[in-house]
Amino acid sequence: MVENRYLILEKKDEVYLSLEAESDIRRELSEFFTFEVPGYKFMPQYRSRYWDGKIRLFKYASGEIYYGLLPYIKKFCEDNNISIVSKIKEKAKPLDKLECARFCKALKIPKITIRDYQFNAFYHAIQEDRCLLLSPTASGKSLIAYLILRFQLLRIKEKKSNKVLIIVPTTSLVEQLYKDFAEYGYNTKHIHRIYQGHDKDTTKKVVISTWQSIYKLPKTWFAQFGCIIGDEAHLFKSQSLTGIMTKMTNCKYRIGMTGTLDGSKTHKLVLEGLFGAVNRVASTTDLIDKKQLAAFKIHCLILKHGKNSKDFLKDKNYQEEMDFLCASKARNKYITNLTNGLQGNTLLLFQFVEKHGKILQEQIEKKVDDGRKVFFVYGGVSADDRENIRAITEKSDNAIIVASYGTFSTGINIRNLHNIIFSSPSKSRIRNLQSIGRGLRLGDNKVNATLYDISDDVSHGEKENYTLQHFRERINIYNEENFDYEIHNVELKE
Questions:
Q1: Given this model, what pLDDT does residue 1 score?
Q2: In the 8-state DSSP scheme, what is residue 218?
Q3: Domain-ending residue, one of 220, 252, 282
Q4: What is the CA angle 125-129-133, rounded to 5?
Q5: Given a cut of 60, is residue 55 above it in pLDDT?
C-alpha cells in the first residue's frame, strides 16, 4: 500500500507561503530549492568559510517560501506524487481584455501608439497580479509601467495600502521616468520623487525612488503601498533590494521589469519568488524585424598584439592583463582613431575611470574635429549634468560620449545614438545586453545602429588570455540573441 503523502499550503502574507508537511517532504523541498550561487568560490564569505556558497529558498524550520514560487511547488508535488491541501483563496475571474483595451484608449496618451506587445504585457501584469516582465531594452518599458500604474491606482483606490511605489536604480532614471509620465499626459503633482536629500514622506499616490534612498526604512513605511513596480528588476537579487521586497508584506501587486536576466537558474528563481513568473514580452530580433527597433550590426574587432606584449603577459593574472590593456598606447590610439572616424552620435564605454576613461577622453579631445562635442560621464557627474548631456546628444548628430559602464549602460535613453564602442572587455550578460540596448532606439533620422566590440588577442601558445575568453562568452550571447555580427582580426601596430 502506497502511503498518501500530502502538503498543506497556505498564504502567510504577500511575501511568503507557509508549508506544512512531514519532515521527509520538507527535506526534499529544501534540497529542491537549494542552489549554488554562480561564482561563489571567488566570494570572500565562502573563502573565509562563513558561507557554503548556496542559497536556500525554502526555510526548513519555519516552512516559509517566496509566494512567487508557487508554480514550482505545484510542479514539485506533481512530480513526486504529493497531494496539495490548499488554503489559498482562488483568483477572481479573468479581466475582460476588451475593457482593458478601452481603459488604455481612455488615457488619451498624446503622440504615442500603444504597440501590441506593450498592451499584452500590461494586460498580463494586471491579470496575474504578480509577474516578471522580460522585455528588451529600448522596447518602451516606461509606457508599460505607466499603463500598469494608472490601472493599479484605480484598483487600490479604496484600500488602506493605496499608493504605488516604483523603484529604479539611479537618480537619472527617477527623473527620466518622471518626465516620461509627464509626456504621457499624467499630472505630475501626484508624483513624489525620492533620492539624495528628498523627503521620504508624502501624501502623493505615486512614489518614484532609487532603492538606495529607501532600503533602510522600516517596514511600517512600506505598508502604505499596494503595488510595487521594480524597474531593472535583475538588480533585485541584491540583499538590499530583497530586503525591500520582504518588508512589503501588505503589497499584493508586484511587477518586475527588466531587459535581461543573467542566465542562471538561481537568479531567475529569486526574482520569480519576489515578483512572480517570467513573461517574455518580445525579443530584440522580433522588434528589429518589425522595424520597431533600429537595425543593428555588430563588428567584433580582435586586436592582435605583438610578441613582446604576449611574452610580457605570459604568466600574468586577469587584473594585470586588464591594467596592461588599459595602459597600452597602441590600443588606446586605435580606439581614439576609431571613435573620431565614426559618423553620428557615438557612445564609448569604459570600465575604469582614472586608468582608462580619462586617458581616452583626453586623447579623443586632442584629435577630434573642431566643433564636435565630447562629453565625459562617470559616477562623479551629477544627475542633472547627465540629463543635460542626454538632451544635448538627442538634438545632435555627431557628438561623442565617453562614459563608464556603470553610468550609461543601464537606463539612459538616447533616441539618436548611432554607434556604441565596448573599450573594456566584459563577460557580463546583463551589462552587455543593457549596453547594446542604448543603441536600439529609433530616432527621427535614425534607423540603424552599430556596435564595435573590441577584444584583445595576447595569447601565448595554445593558452587563450583572459579577455579573449570573455570575448568568446560575448559571442555566445550574440548567438543566443540572434544578433548580426562579423569578426575582424586587426593587427595592432605597437
A1: 43
A2: -
A3: 282
A4: 35
A5: yes
Residue 265 three-state SS:
helix
User: pTM for this structure?
Assistant: 0.82
φ and ψ at residue 305, rounded to 5 degrees? -85, 160
Cell numbers representing residue 215 in the block? 532600503
Q: Which SS3 state, helix, strand or coil, does residue 453 take?
A: strand
For residues 397-403, give the mean pLDDT. Answer: 89
348 contact partners, CB below 8 Å, separation of at least 6: 335, 339, 360, 364, 400, 401, 402, 403, 421, 423
Element (DSSP H or E) covering residue 478:
helix 466-480
- Please report, rounded to a whole number, the percentage of residues in the chain having pLDDT higher than 90: 57
pLDDT in tens, 78-122: 999 999 999 998 877 889 999 999 999 999 999 899 999 999 999
**Statement to judge: residues 29 and 139 lie in one domain:** no
303, 331 contact by CB (below 8 A):
yes
Considering its fold, how many domains does the chain have in total? 3
- In the predicted structure, residue 407 carries a pLDDT above the cut 80: no
Q: Which residue has the cell 522585455?
A: 135
* Domain carrying residue 350: 290-491
Of 262, 282, 302, the last residue of a domain is 282
CB 376 within 8 Å of CB 366 = no
DSSP for 277-293 reads -EEE---HHHHHHTTSS
